[in-house]
Amino acid sequence: xxxxxxxxxxxxxxxxxxxxxxxxxxxxxxxxxxxxxxxxxxxxxxxxxxxxxxxxxxxxxxxxxxxxxxxxxxxxxxxxxxxxxxxxxxxxxxxxxxxxxxxxxxxxxxxxxxxxxxxxxxxxxxxxxxxxxxxxxxxxxxxxxxxxxxxxxxxxxxxxxxxxxxxxxxxxxxxxxxxxxxxxxxxxxxxxxxxxxxxxxxxxxxxxxxxxxxxxxxxxxxxxxxxxxxxxxxxxxxxxxxxxxxxxxxxxxxxxxxxxxxxxxxxxxxxxxxxxxxxxxxxxxxxxxxxxxxxxxxxxxxxxxxxxxxxxxxxxxxxxxxxxxxxxxxxxxxxxxxxxxxxxxxxxxxxxxxxxxxxxxxxxxxxxxxxxxxxxxxxxxxxxxxxxxxxxxxxxxxxxxxxxxxxxxxxxxxxxxxxxxxxxxxxxxxxxxxxxxxxxxxxxxxxxxxxxxx
Length: 454
Fold this sequence. Notes:
Methylamine Dehydrogenase, Chain H; 7-stranded antiparallel β-sheet; 4-stranded antiparallel β-sheet; globular; disordered N terminus
């Protein structure tokens, strides 16, 4: 009898825990940028991991426009990245080339734009394929906007390109979150070993912004302009904050004094850290002490990387030569195999890095402590991503749920016509390292992904 009662109590407790977990999951949502198909996708995590919904689009709640339609009804926008406000009420979507028609604008160097959306409206299924969640646009202050970070009252934005060219970017801008006003500009230094540049920084008459630059990479003339892509905020052991940018044009990482920038000083880049290969994606550990940089594709010769570098913020700020404290091969055991790691994310406890490897069609999980110790087994998991249509997964973006239980990965090839919803979002259980749900129909060439709790 006693044993029966204990079993009943255990069963009831398990039922309560299961119910609580369902409740937690039902409050967690995935936000993914559709990129070439310019919607912000809102996805229910609970529905995404429901086995009956696997490899379907059933978990998609709504598709939200990131710009008003053109007068002829054409969808506009180029949503490549996003970030969610601290209170999780607002989404800032980075339109890489602004309000453009992706089918017509087939080059780089469009004016960057931030679309501001309301989270509650974006999660409302009645707003599917409408602009009801869209509130306003901010100008990014440059061209080819991509990296973004939050300050209490401003956005920090990296602008990777220049007017109608993929090269020529050196601007990091500060934009007021309330009004969209451009509050400040940092101009990164020009040049790298072997490349002298004849443009003054900051730009001044009669030079102005650069012109007559290569329209597209790869191009051997790359190396003058940093072309900052990823952006992250780091923090030293004394609590001071610094901006880090992944410079695809000069194969290095800039270290920028945030306090000086907020005083209006445009020349606050204090150091450059050489990275062996084309940095692109970037993130920071939760305490800000380490910056993780993914080596993607070289803009000079189109060669592809396969490593991540971990930068110690204290050493980077001090300007010592040993700021890169770890380098890890990801997505492969063959140092010669290109994997193209893209947008990393770190678990809330700061223990692991999640890496989507675009060409390897897999996801790496790297233990940071083992990486810092130089342990060759620091890549603790390598998870293949598959599609039911046998197309390559092409993973790009990553995020981790607030409870640290799941990683969310966006991916899919860019295929014309761009109106085809061929992107996928994968949910990985970080305990078992298994893909436990795949959502189909998420944009075309999706990049940025985030999670919110509501």
